[in-house]
Design a protein that fits this description.
Number of domains: 2
Number of strands: 43
Shape: elongated
Number of helices: 4
Structural class: mainly beta
Radius of gyration: 23 Å
Strand content: 25-35%
Distance between the termini: 60 Å
Helix content: under 10%
């Protein structure tokens, strides 16, 4: 059976199943897919396996890591993986990206691969395997990959030629399987300063990258990648992503930007402009999907201008947990329900979050397609010190309707929800049904774009007088941009802290 994680390979990967009820609700239910699990395709490297057993008995201090410096842009395999030398032929000095990863896979220890600045590494070898010989770059051992910046060091998946994603980080050292790791030998990988573009998982998921391991991503960009599921990144391992961009990725079914089925922590990151160009948009989750028992904590980030067909233009949650802290959801759209956020089941918490100008029922085809801002079906959706304002759903006849929420929400205090239609949305707890007076989404300082509070906004100094807090009750000392909060007698509601002109219009005044 095929796994949507990778075309043509039966890789053991927990199922990316959205519950059948959700798929039945989708108008285009013939596109509903279920991903087979519990099959295994192991990379058979007897020597590597024996070496791993030997190393398990050796103190970690005795395992020496290697450093490989890539000096060639061509896509050629390593001449002799395991000899400790990155080279494409005996006695030469050519070290390619693919050769360096193969050598790091075969060399014990957490190795380092240094990439060149002002360089584009174009993948050229069509086909699929789990040894990194063809198609994507397979990471089978702990490694740190260092580039010079997401716009300077680029890996181009050349998807129309190669027909594969760009990179897979597997779970266990020395194995392409997804089962339990012997002796706790999980792959720990770090990637920084690299751009991933033009990956194409034509029959699977994760057009840019698939992760099963313990992966840290910093200062990276995932752009213009394509997959059936998760155009940018699919992760069922642990993913820490910071100071990065996931933009312009496309998908056939759902999760155009990111699919998080494991643990994901996101900080100072932008997820924008993901989804199919035009209609039909991806069925579910234009920006991010958190499902299959996943847990996502997103802080100081912006999810904007993403597009979905049926559910969750910005973020979609099902059988999972989502926490948003100091984060902005703006200008996301869907043809169905939940323009900004759709919670089908599970738990979602919003802490100093701004959700504005999102749209449900963009194609004006569904008389019951509501929740321009947020949509909750079951589970829980809790707001604290947050703003829901200026969200809409479009109508087949007549002007757009104000539509900040659908379903039952819980207000944990100090929230602004500008428009509540009591026939479709009920809120337990106090809130203020007033305007928030927001500026446009733009650079107001900090690593991500924000919606500034305009002069006289009723959100200013209206947060919890005892201090705004995150999902674990810790005081929020800054806003989304990193500006200290509070700047007055109390913290401001939403992701932006008014600071008397500091960082307005993208510069300090």
């Amino acid at each position: 059976m095929r796994s949507l994680l990778h075309p043509g390979r039966a890789l053991a990967y927990p199922e990316y199943r959205l519950v059948q009820n959700t798929l039945r609700r989708a108008p285009r239910e013939e596109n509903a897919v279920f991903v087979p699990g519990n099959s295994r395709a192991w990379l058979r490297l007897p020597f590597r396996h024996l070496l791993g057993l030997f190393l398990a008995a050796v103190p970690a201090s005795c395992v020496l890591a290697a450093t490989f410096s890539v000096n060639s842009l061509v896509d050629v395999v390593d001449a002799n993986p395991g000899d400790g030398i990155c080279r494409t032929a005996p006695n030469n000095t050519v070290c390619t990206l693919r050769a360096a990863i193969m050598e790091a896979n075969a060399t014990a220890g957490a190795d380092t691969i240094n990439l060149q600045a002002n360089a584009t590494y174009m993948l050229e070898l069509p086909g699929t395997d789990d040894a990194g010989l063809n198609g994507d770059l397979d990471v089978l051992d702990s490694v740190t990959i260092v580039g010079a910046g997401a716009t300077s060091t680029i890996i181009d998946g050349n998807g129309l030629v190669v027909g594969d994603r760009i990179m897979t980080v597997f779970k266990c050292i020395g194995s392409a399987g997804a089962g339990d790791c012997l002796n706790g030998a999980n792959i720990v990988a770090t990637i920084s300063g690299v751009g991933f573009r033009h990956g194409r998982a034509v029959g699977g998921s994760g057009g840019g990258l698939a992760n099963l391991g313990l992966l840290t991503i910093h200062d990276c960009a995932f752009t213009e990648n394509f997959a059936v599921i998760a155009g940018g990144i699919v992760s069922n391992g642990t993913l820490d992503i910071s100071n990065s961009t996931v933009a312009g990725n496309e998908v056939a079914l759902f999760a155009a930007g990111i699919f998080a089925g494991g643990v994901m922590r996101m900080v100072d990151t932008t997820v924008r402009d993901n989804g199919l160009l035009g209609d039909p948009a991806p069925e579910i989750g234009g920006g991010i999907v958190v499902a299959s028992g996943g847990t996502a904590t997103i802080k100081h980030s912006t999810i904007s201008n993403n597009r979905a067909g049926n559910y969750g233009g910005g973020i979609y949650v099902e059988s999972a947990t989502l926490n948003l802290v100091n984060t902005t959801l703006s200008d996301n759209v869907c043809n169905g329900i939940g323009g900004g956020l759709a919670v089908i089941s599970g738990t979602a918490g919003l802490y100093n979050v701004t959700i504005a100008d999102n749209i449900a029922n963009r194609d004006q085809s569904g008389p019951a397609d509501f929740g321009g801002g947020v949509y909750r079906e079951t589970g829980t959706l809790t707001l604290r010190n947050s703003i829901l304002t200026s969200n809409l759903h479009l109508n087949a006849m007549g002007p757009p309707s104000n539509d900040d929420c659908f379903g039952g929400l819980t207000s944990a205090g100090n929230n602004i929800v500008t428009f509540v239609n009591g026939q479709i949305c009920s809120i337990t707890g106090s809130f203020a049904a007033v305007g928030a007076s927001l500026g446009p989404l733009q650079n107001n300082g900090g690593p991500t774009q924000t919606r500034a509070l305009l002069a006289g906004s009723l959100a200013i100094d209206a947060g919890n007088p005892a201090g705004c807090t995150d999902n674990v009750g810790a005081i929020l000392a800054t806003d989304q941009r990193g500006v200290p909060r509070p700047s007055g007698p109390a913290c401001d509601i939403g992701a932006f802290e008014d600071s008397d002109g500091v960082f307005k219009d993208g510069f300090e005044s």
